[in-house]
Design brief:
The complex is a heterodimer. Chain A is an alpha/beta fold. Chain A has three helices and seven strands; from the N terminus they run E-E-H-E-E-H-E-E-H-E. Chain A has one domain: Cell Cycle, Spindle Assembly Checkpoint Protein, Chain A (2-Layer Sandwich). In chain A, about 40% of the residues lie in helices and about 25% in strands. In chain A, the strands form two sheets. In chain A, strands 1, 2, 5, 6 and 7 form a five-stranded mixed beta sheet that branches. A two-stranded antiparallel ribbon of chain A has the order 3-4. In chain A, strand 3 and strand 4 form a beta hairpin. Chain B is of the alpha+beta class. Classes of the chains: A alpha/beta, B alpha+beta. Chains A and B meet through helix 1, strand 3, strand 4 and helix 3 of A and helix 4 of B. Chain B: It comes from Brachypodium distachyon (Purple false brome). Chain B: InterPro entries: ATG13, Atg13_N, HORMA_dom_sf.
Chain lengths: ~190, ~525
Amino acid sequence: MNCETCHLNELELEPREIKDVLRCILHTIFFHRTLTLVRPKDVDCERFQITYVQCGLPDLEKEVDEKINQFIAWAEKHPNRRSQVCLSFFDEKNKHPGWFSNKTERIYWEQWFINLHVISPKGHGKQHSSKAQTNITGEASEQASSRHDALGSLIQEVLFQIINYANEKKDHIPPISDRIFNHEISIPR
Amino acid sequence: MSGMSDSGAGGRAGAELMAEQFHLKVLHAVLAVRAPRPLAAAQAAAASASFRRRDRWFHLPLHDPPPPPEAELLEAPPPGEPLVVDIHLAPAGSGGAGGEVVERWTVACEPWPDAAASAAGEGMAVNRAYKRCITLLRSVYSTLRLLPAYRVFRLLCANQSYNYEMGYRVGSFAVPFSRAEEAAMRSHRFLPVETQPGRLVVSVQYLSSLTAFNLEISSLSPSMLITNYVGSPAAEPMRAFPASLTEATGSAFPQSYQQQRPHSWAPPALWPQPPMQQMRFSPPPLHYASPTPSPPTFSGGYLRSPLRGESAPVTIPGERRSPVHRQNMLDPIKGLMLPPPSPRRGEKGAAGSQESPSEISRSFGRAEGLRMVDPYGSSSPGSKVKDSKDESGRFSALSSCDSPRQDDLDDADYPFAVDDVDPPFSRPGSSDGKEAGDQAGSSSHKSQDAAVGSLVHLLRTARPLRDSSYSSQTAGVESSEVASASSVMSRRTSDALEELQSFKAIRERLLSGSRAKERESPEKP
């Protein structure tokens, strides 16, 4: 079975935005790939004024948040770097089927690569002049606002990218089971 | 559903059933987030309820929010006919007239074009098609929340006092867009799902920007009317206005309202298209009433949707105490004893009798700004935003539009009808005219206005020349009426003479008082 891959558009964001961005993206992917009975839950992302949908599965939410926190910790140690968070769906099969063999292998059938560029927020400089400080603060806040607005638009583009891809590539999805597909969220090390 | 048979007639029937349910599911999903209504109660009920069997179709129960109740009455279109759902915005209270379609969802099962394709379709496994339908519906569900109309839906759910209403039309036919409309709309067609009867296709046309609809809150809802405003009969007329309220009207709109401006929300190019405009909200001017909705019915043609807007129109009073009332106080001919205007918000030392429109709009805008909750303002991870602020009258920003005259008449009973005036005379028509004269004499130190006011009060409280109490005594007895008519006449005359004498005394006192004042005035610096 071929593994379908989808590389999402890169997003440039600050550390404080990581949680909201990754929640939006990961949950949207899960919502499209969790074909069991779900209890859809609308979640408002206040920061970017986006409403995305979760599956309403508490365990999944907990898992996603844990992985996001791990990524945030990694990003703090590796500032200003491009990175990827990968969400993979796989099947597990016995590697050597037999009575005494427990080895299983993962056969990935889909991978989503979330490309992020975490940047440190721009400092306010070392200016000692109060007037210069005020000017720089004003310009910085304008830049931050426009950057924030642009990021919101880019996030929506990424969400639509997920919607498009999820609909275009459906043949490789395994049969529906009574639980969500096996998956793993990989973060850089 | 997941175990539908793929074989033979059972497969065909299953596929047709699936196609029918697919149409309904899309319809319900669209209406759930495009038919504004108070959602809190519906969501609470739906969240706690278990899913019905039919809700489990495509493993996507619509519970948060659930579709409007009238959606249950809608039936799927006949096989071969498309389902078209138009979402439109119309001025509030217009009943849909003058509305503009902002979104059009079309669901259709396109028959196979030829026999070969049909034969290929017949081999389509129902389970496989069902799985694809699940994914397609997930996409429709997500897309519904990313399009511009969703934002309007949330706003209208939170506050139904906007100047626009969102409604829907369901049918199997839709009026084609004009060229201009077509040019303004974006469109997207989801990847079809192949089934035995045909290909299930979902497409959407939408306006990428709703800035042309200047959504504004038109007025306070009835629940926000304050009856115990300062100056009302229910309140103390002379209660000082709280300083906190006067200080709080510094800015036109609070920060929360500012944050609601969706300048960062502009929907991106859904599918590669030019950048979209942004929605803009501005202060509220007016409120439009709207009719009570009626449930729609599906009859193959256009179906009118309920246009919701359940709050009654409320006119904001432009003024409470107009200068004409002060004039009436000076003019005894008017016969009204009117109190001075109560202190108004925004007045700073001025004895203004009128609240300026800017004061009104600012205080109103502030109230509405805080009421107009940002749909994203109170969310927390994993929780749905619920707006309950529109249910409480939170601000005493404005008063009702009671007639000022009535208030003034009521206030006339209070002992401070005018500035620096003594309590009104108890019975100016009493037999003791000297008491009246003494009281009038004590008013020599009052202003001339106060003196005239007291005179007017006397006139008002004086016994009428034709006392109804006397006539009531003789009512129904003609002979006794005639017999006592002369005595009544003489008594009335004596009363009138007494009053005239007392008035003369008052007049003398007033004149002497004014002369004394005139003598004193040159001595003042």
